[in-house]
# Entry
Amino acid sequence: MSALPTDGRVVALSGGVGGAKLALGLYRVLPPDSLTVIVNTGDDFDHLGLRICPDLDTTLYTLAGLAHPEAGWGRRDETWTFMRALESLGSETWFRLGDGDLALHVERTRRLARDESLTAFIGAIARRLGIRAAIVPMSDDPVRTRVMTDHGELGFQEYFVRLRCEPAVRSLRFEGAAAANVSAAAADALDQPGLAAVIVCPSNPFLSIDPILAVPEMRSLLKQAAAPVIAVSPLIGEHAVKGPTAKIMRELGWTVAATSVAEHYGDLIDGFVLDERDREQAGRVQVPLAMTDTLMTGLPDRERVARAALALARELRDPGPAEGPV
Amino acid sequence: MSALPTDGRVVALSGGVGGAKLALGLYRVLPPDSLTVIVNTGDDFDHLGLRICPDLDTTLYTLAGLAHPEAGWGRRDETWTFMRALESLGSETWFRLGDGDLALHVERTRRLARDESLTAFIGAIARRLGIRAAIVPMSDDPVRTRVMTDHGELGFQEYFVRLRCEPAVRSLRFEGAAAANVSAAAADALDQPGLAAVIVCPSNPFLSIDPILAVPEMRSLLKQAAAPVIAVSPLIGEHAVKGPTAKIMRELGWTVAATSVAEHYGDLIDGFVLDERDREQAGRVQVPLAMTDTLMTGLPDRERVARAALALARELRDPGPAEGPV
# Structure
């Protein structure tokens, strides 16, 4: 097991379930207080009068050790009395809200209504839950992912949850992004001289990472960052481990392959972590590569992928003797 | 067992737990669709961004058969995951909200925000829960009970739940009452020619019934009602079955006795149901009396007290041969 990088802070860009797995790996291999996770808020929506931030909450629960071990979303030891009662009242039940999860939505809605920023709220909750990483929304301004499909334009959760990603995606639009500002905490995290690595987590590039990149300053902050930007492939062969990445890539006209993801990120990234099963694609990726088994089933997997990404960043940052103190 | 009155509608005025017991008795002995319960909303408040209406909800749960069998408030088969999670987030937990109960608050808050009236919302929920009685708020306008105590002025729930009625009450104020209108459904229920009885349930006269009476039109509607107004004593000897009635009466300078309750209601009532254990007080009540065991432990008790109150109303309405078809 290699020594861990301890020479600076690391920033991760992440969506929900898939991204949070690697965020947890990074959190575990890095020293405390050295990770900032910038999280997609394009999936956020108002439902039943409550502000729901699925990706931020998944990240919180994952890093706090509260996440449901199988589902990847929601809380462990959850109960569902609220949903059953809501159903008996004839209300909307297509978006499942667990009883414990609801506490976060109710508390957030209350505090945002008192003009607390989303950044401040998530920061306070993360500290309260004992998380020693910064979890920050990409923006405190509303950005809402809209999905243009063969069934018309849909809100993200309508498409993703209510219609289970069944409509074919024609294009995506990030409503509000053009007018949004990168959150101060995200900007500060990217704009520090001692930054060691920026890791783009293996979230869906189109649904989860693109909304982050759609906030105007974000690309320039990434380009000016002192550290290399490393993306981790969300694909193994033609398959995403979870979720509709492969289906959407096909619908948007991309070849379903890790190389397409690297191509999609283009000159934004300085390095790419490819699954070792996709070794034959290595020659077609235009940036320096690391290869590992990217399938993250247990904690050791999450740590392994985190180490691979961090090692590649270190290599690119300090291209000295290949066998340096990685 | 006497025949039931079937010749008109009945209106009950009620607060929470104690009143709902008799409302259930009336509901069970009357034909379907003939009871209207006008419920106190002075206890309503906004908490965690949710509109909570404790007395309306207790009435709904009680008549729907969903009430907690022992507590008298909240739902049966309730779970408490939300409160535990809320506590872990460091939020306010002095007001206990069950997971199932929460569905009603979330759904109400959402629908009131869309300009649905409280009357319309409660009506829709009552129908949805299969209740064949009308449950109507005393007013659709906000009335908030404020408690002047030796610890200063308190909101009702602060006094009642947070401080467990411990401060000594100096006086009560029903904020908003002067400007409030009786809800149209309550006014219509009281203003019908075929009305058979108005029953003032054995709720706390000062905390639960007075806010209803504080809405300006309410007293004149009761005085002009075609039916006799019958109050049921909330006291047995010097004790209230539940809640702080006796303590508050003492603090407000009243002798703790059923006669004081009758005196407090004054010329608003035409008849009074006294507990048979208080027989020796009978001579000091200025209105016609019925006597029964008013302790409502099980369903048969609730039905017995309901029948006693309805029989007294019938007697006063139709003072013919004493042995008529009651």
